[in-house]
Amino acid sequence: MNKKSIVLQTTLELITKQGIQATSLSQIIKDSGVANGTVYHHFKNKEEIITELYLMLTQDFGTVVMRNIPEDDLKKQFTIMWHNLFDYFVNNPLAFVFSEQIARSPEIPQSLKDKARQYYNEIEAYFRKGIKDKVFKSYNTTVMEELFFGNVVSLVKIHENENVKLLDKHINQAIDISWKGFLRD
Amino acid sequence: MNKKSIVLQTTLELITKQGIQATSLSQIIKDSGVANGTVYHHFKNKEEIITELYLMLTQDFGTVVMRNIPEDDLKKQFTIMWHNLFDYFVNNPLAFVFSEQIARSPEIPQSLKDKARQYYNEIEAYFRKGIKDKVFKSYNTTVMEELFFGNVVSLVKIHENENVKLLDKHINQAIDISWKGFLRD
Amino acid sequence: MNKKSIVLQTTLELITKQGIQATSLSQIIKDSGVANGTVYHHFKNKEEIITELYLMLTQDFGTVVMRNIPEDDLKKQFTIMWHNLFDYFVNNPLAFVFSEQIARSPEIPQSLKDKARQYYNEIEAYFRKGIKDKVFKSYNTTVMEELFFGNVVSLVKIHENENVKLLDKHINQAIDISWKGFLRD
Amino acid sequence: MNKKSIVLQTTLELITKQGIQATSLSQIIKDSGVANGTVYHHFKNKEEIITELYLMLTQDFGTVVMRNIPEDDLKKQFTIMWHNLFDYFVNNPLAFVFSEQIARSPEIPQSLKDKARQYYNEIEAYFRKGIKDKVFKSYNTTVMEELFFGNVVSLVKIHENENVKLLDKHINQAIDISWKGFLRD
DNA sequence: TATGAATGAGCATTCATTCAT
DNA sequence: AATGAATGAATGCTCATTCAT
After folding, report:
1. What is the rounded CA–CA span in Å between residue D159 and residue C39?
2. What is the span of the domain harbouring residue B42?
3. Boundaries of each HTH tetR-type domain copy (chains A, B, C, D) (predicted)?
4. In the 5-34 stretch of chain B, whose C-beta falls under 7 Å of nucleic acid strand F?
5. CA atoms within a 13 Å half-sphere pointing along the CA-CB vector of B13
6. Percent of chain B with pLDDT over 70
7. What is the CATH number of the domain that holds D32?
8. Is D54 a member of any domain?
């Protein structure tokens, strides 16, 4: 494992623990056991470490959401999309931190934000089809996407922060709530 | 307007613009046109400014959500709660920033986080009643609260960030989706 | 003597010894026995220390050159101007360093360069009069000024660097050479 | 063109633009498109690059000043020496930068300074002869050399910095002034 | 000959905080 | 209540240089 990877890995751990802003370069340097200049040999500046990390973590994002989606059964598709996203965030806490911070943080460059928004396309297509198939009510798709995404985020937050142990049944309840909301009356 | 208020007001504006972490005390001092020591005369340290600001902004929070709630009509109550929360966040961007950051930020003391969770009590009571009245399905109330809250947040985010102009009809759609999700089949 | 003055004095000494570029802030801090932050309390940045120092040293520059200039005797005026400038540079090594660096250094802001060029006005007036009085040949005055100034600089350099002890007689020789060059044939 | 030459050429350009001190090795490396270690393969350290560059540029210096000097006509010799030096500096800006910085800069080793002073020998010999021939007044030759040299430098500075367009006539005026200064009364 | 990973001292600057007035 | 001088740890970053390949 080369120094560059060590730096990335250390940064990943620190950011997951403390957030982006609270993670200083000196801490990264200290924790990774790498020399000051070594970091700057591999990265132009602090931002580049974070950007690179972000790209590493999110390059599979788009594919992840749509992984193992079966054909033609809209409800099944919904459930699996939901699980895919939930599992992804649970297993990639940094990706979650990033996706939460993207909305506001000025330190994430716009290009990254744009890139992050690509995965919406497939989700949007999904909702469009649901509306066309008369399964979903014809809500605004941006609203639908945002609510869908937000619901997953809500559950991840419970998973992360609550003392309440989050059980499969709770997740299924959430998926149920989420799904029902979009249906035609 | 006394110096203390000026400091608080300046901090409010800066945090709303830049986030908590990005707002330094020196910037607060510079922007508020107040002397270094004056800030420390009124506040023990930086954290106290933020805490005080947070308390100022959130002390009305609990009452706000339950303002003008009519009796006995669960759907009407839901709609008004939803609007109350949405309007509150839209009109108090800092309260929104805080509520978003509370979940993760290590610099918000636990006591504040606990305090922030009080408003859940009334929302929880609401959902409990809905379940008892056989209007809502008997989902876990934590899940319900979190999804309800998250749905509002999602719309606020659209309101804030999207180029899409958020219309009343979109809000009504969101409320509709949100409400339907909780219903018994 | 307050800390600000100490910093300025220390910087003056260091720059005189080592030049501007070779003088680091940490050295200024170490030598002046002042805390890191104290420097930045008084000065916006390193450049401001140098600028302030420069303004302090050069504000008397214009008056210095024309000090004690007798009326009507062009030769006597020349001699005294020459001595004034020479003595000034010898007694204000930093002013000399600055005036030498002004021509090239990109780190001296243009405003300062402009200010420095003001003293030329009086010297130019002097040469103009000499030409009008038919004492000097009608050379281009910019050339005359630059050569006059350069001659003083040449002698200051000898004074500074040569192992040769610079005697009054050498200075008088230089003035003689300098003067004769401008005369009508 | 081998890597060593590329490094030298790049350094030459950077120093001419920015001065010696402002030119960092990393910049040289970046601009020359050469690897880090390659520089250190060819040069012991940064100083050696500058030294080598300096030697390259000044090895012809001595011969340049005395190029095409006719025999026996002291005035003609003076004029050509003057032009030689002026043209050399105008065409070799770096040589000019060096010659200007040599006097003060502590980073030019003494050995180089000594070497640079060799060309004075021939100029000194010239002035000695002028004095012996009773054309020049018997001024101190160091003073004469320094003034002669300084006069050329003054004109080069006008050439470089002034908005005033420097014409041949101005140069001839300068030579005239310079020459007359040294003459016997 | 050429490379580029690695180093750590050093740099200018910002930060939250203390304290005497 | 208000000021602002003073502090020094910490930050992000640049530097010249070494060394194994």
Report:
1. 40
2. 3-53
3. 1-61
4. 34
5. 10
6. 89
7. 1.10.10.60
8. no
A150–B contact, CB cutoff 8 A: yes
Give residue D99's pLDDT.
77
Q: Write the residue in B107, B137, B154 that is nearest to A147 by C-beta.
A: B154
Q: What is the mean pLDDT of chain D?
A: 88
Is residue C16 predicted with pLDDT exceeding 60?
yes
Give me the pLDDT at residue D116, please.
Answer: 66
Whether A31 sits with its Cβ under 7 A from any strand F atom: the answer reads: no
D70 and D91 belong to one structural domain: yes
User: pLDDT of D136-164, one tens digit each?
Assistant: 999 999 999 999 999 999 999 899 875 67
Q: In this structure, are A67 and A41 located in the same domain?
A: no
The confidence score (pLDDT) of residue A108 equals 58
Does C73 lie in the same domain as C39? no
0.85 exceeded by pTM: no
Pair (B82, B140) in one structural domain: yes
- Averaged over successive runs of 10 residues, the pLDDT of chain D (185 residues) comes to 93 87 93 96 94 83 84 93 94 81 60 69 92 97 94 92 82 98 94
| Number of folded domains that form chain C | 2
Q: Are residues C36 and C64 in the same domain?
A: no
Residues A76 and A9 placed together within one structural domain of the fold: no
Copy the structure tokens of residue B109.
């003391």
The 3-state secondary structure of chain A reads CCHHHHHHHHHHHHHHHHCCCCCCHHHHHHHHCCCHHHHHHHCCCHHHHHHHHHHHHHCCHHHHHCCCCCCCCHHHHHHHHHHHHHHHHHHCHHHHHHHHHHCCCCCCCHHHHHHHCCHHHHHHHHHHHHHHCCCECCCCHHHHHHHHHHHHHHHHHHHHHCCCCCCHHHHHHHHHHHHHHHECC
Task: Quick: pLDDT tens for A79-117.
Answer: 999 999 999 999 888 788 777 765 555 555 666 666 666
How many Å apart are CA D152 and CA D156, to the nearest integer? 6
Task: Tell me: do D45 and D64 sit in the same domain.
Answer: no
- Residue C127: pLDDT over 80: yes
Q: Measured between beta carbons, which residues in chain D are less than 8 angstroms from residue C160?
A: 103
User: A13, A32, A54: which is the final residue of a domain?
Assistant: A54
D168 and D88 in a single domain? The answer is yes
Residue nearest to nucleotide E19 (CA to C1'): B37
Cβ within 8 Å, pair C157-D97: no
B17's tokens:
């613009």
